[in-house]
Amino acid sequence: MSDILTIAEHRQGELRDVSLELLTAGAELAEETGGDLHVAVISGDVDRYAEGLDREGVDAIHTVAYGEEFNHDVYTQAVTQLVDSLEASYVLGANSVNGLDYLPAVATRLDVPLVTDVVALETAGETLTATREMYGGKVETTVDVEGTPVVVSIRGAEWPIAEGEGSAAVEAFDAEIDEDAIGSSVNGFEEVAGGDVDISEADLLVSVGRGIDEEENLELIEELAAALGATMSSSRPIVDAGWLPANRQVGQSGKVVTPEVYIAIGISGAVQHVAGMKGSETIVAINTDPNAPIMDIADYAIHDDLFDVVPALIEQFS
Amino acid sequence: MKILVTVKEVATVDDAFEIDGTAIDERYLSADLNEWDDYAIEEAVQLSEDGIVDEVVTVTIGDEDTEQTIRQALAKGADRAIRVWDDALEEVDLLDVGAKVAILEAVVAAEEPDLVLTGVQSGDDSFGATGVALAEAVGTQWAAVVNQLDLDNGADVASVHRELEGGLEELTDVDLPAVLSIQTGINEPRYASLRGIRMAQRKELDHQTLADLGVDAGDVAGDLELTSMYEPESESDTTVFEGSADDTAGQLAELLREKGVAQ
Ligand SMILES: Cc1cc2nc3c(=O)[nH]c(=O)nc-3n(C[C@H](O)[C@H](O)[C@H](O)COP(=O)(O)OP(=O)(O)OC[C@H]3O[C@@H](n4cnc5c(N)ncnc54)[C@H](O)[C@@H]3O)c2cc1C
């Protein structure tokens, strides 16, 4: 019997979706191991969060009332203490920016293995088999980890959100937070500048990626956007290079868009990009690489050079 | 102030490739400087040019072939480089976070930097965890996914922005010494100049073995065993437009008109 502990994530007063996805992943594992599913929620309005986390399959919710927002030192201390106290076998957190800011420290402090960005999980006896991607999503791999405990971070939107009301016991966990060991302090948050265009409002997005190669080639995409009456957006490298402003970036750290049609031009479809556009009604990919991960979610694809296809497409509308 | 930058050579995969057991066949791989590390190097070199940092040292886990990538970092302005390699590493299929940390921990102990910069992740295995795990192992502070770094001369605190999801940034002060994982976009990495490339040839590139660092070969075996590698199955029924560029553009134009999003 191996117990599972999932760590909820919240931000600015809201539970994040991945917290409920973690419950689904945790419940599946608990079913396999015959163990209990524990959930921890740390900092902020923990009792309110606990209500939101009380879903079917959850056996116990542990609240750690300390501080308001995420602080990695507090999380690391609280989670390691919880793992020890519950003797949890598998610790599941989100492969989010904050997950990556404390889970590696938890694994190191406990001196146990860490598997990140996992998209599927399975246990057989003492072995955990995790599925993860390599080379920007071009291949999938399985890795085996023997023994417990193991710390795992799961990729968002891979497991469904846990539904169904639960009847978990909610218990305050008395974590001993050593304040002297807190070496970083969060002083606030800042929204990245909004700017003139809101790409999340557009019906048709012409989105450009690193395949465009050079800044002056962007003119070609501008021309296409003008011909189609579309709005231009991009993947991250275009914004990193300063070729387009931050408000045009689609993805995990940019904007989430849901246009009727999303045309991805020279974009590979890295998971952080896909996180921002997979809700588009129709996805079209123009890419020389027929194996690019974007093809997995594209409804229509052209496996060809954008420098041939885009001028021909402009021609069709002029 | 001394900065240690972790620099990795990553493999990039050709459009078409074959898998050989639990690896991509070497014929389809090329070597490149890890994208995120490029930004970490630039950040360190800029701090050095601003007179805040006295020395920028890079550390790479990799065989002799990685020296061309290390020279790139030196050509961009790092002062010297350490490369760690050993026969014991040759046999490891997947160098996981724990194994990397065991090695880097020993380098940090020897170098005693005030600041360690790593990339947020590496483009090949993308664990995204080495920086934070290293910080915990050596007992310093850390911050993950940093896209702005403000550091004053002689300061004992670094002010950083951490890039969260959805266009939100967290403003955080981190006590030094610390490990920061650097996100792309924090700066504009330079190209190595010809002069830089020439000078890089004369900079120190020190090869160290596990024994030199006092690391036990058992510690680099890692906890994760790679058991299979395969091409992911496509989830969607993609309609592929076939033909010349004119043909495919015509079909796409028709689709866009049908959907009523373009006239
Ligand atoms: C914490 C974190 C947050 C991130 N947030 C985001 C985010 O919000 N948004 C985002 O986009 N990324 C984000 N990223 C980066 C992401 O991992 C990828 O690096 C990025 O999405 C890659 O962009 P790309 O597809 O344009 O470039 P690449 O991956 O380099 O792909 C370029 C594509 O162009 C194709 N191509 C090349 N030449 C041509 C041609 N002539 N014609 C047609 N096709 C061509 C290639 O086959 C390739 O598929 C984030 C990463 C991290 C670690």
Structural class of chain B: alpha/beta
Count of individual beta strands of chain A:
17
Q: Specify the helix fraction band of chain A.
A: 25-40%
Poorly predicted runs of 5 or more residues of chain B = none
Tally of helical runs of chain A: 8
What is the number of beta strands of chain B?
A: 15
Largest sheet of chain A: 9 strands, mixed
Helix proportion range of chain B: 25-40%
Name the assembly state.
heterodimer
Succession of helices and strands of chain A: EEEHEHEHEHEEEEEEEHEHEHEEH
Q: Largest contact between protein chains? A: A-B, 93 and 86 residues
User: What is the global morphology of chain A?
Assistant: elongated
Q: What's the arrangement of secondary structure elements?
A:
The complex is a heterodimer of chains A (318) and B (263).
Chain A: E1 4-7, E2 10-11, E3 14-15, H1 17-33, E4 37-42, H2 46-53, E5 60-64, H3 72-86, E6 90-94, H4 99-110, E7 114-124, E8 127-134, E9 139-146, E10 150-154, E11 169-172, E12 184-191, E13 204-208, H5 218-228, E14 231-234, H6 236-240, E15 261-265, H7 271-277, E16 282-286, E17 300-302, H8 306-316
Parallel strand pairs in A: 1-4, 1-6, 4-5, 5-11, 6-10, 7-10, 13-14, 13-15, 15-16, 16-17
Antiparallel strand pairs in A: 2-3, 7-8, 8-9
Chain B: E1 2-6, E2 9-13, E3 19-20, E4 23-24, E5 29-33, H1 35-49, E6 55-61, H2 67-75, E7 80-84, H3 87-90, H4 97-111, E8 115-119, H5 130-138, E9 141-150, E10 157-163, E11 168-175, E12 178-182, H6 194-202, E13 205-208, H7 210-213, E14 224-230, E15 239-240, H8 245-258
Parallel strand pairs in B: 1-6, 1-8, 6-7, 7-13, 8-12, 9-12
Antiparallel strand pairs in B: 2-5, 3-4, 9-10, 10-11
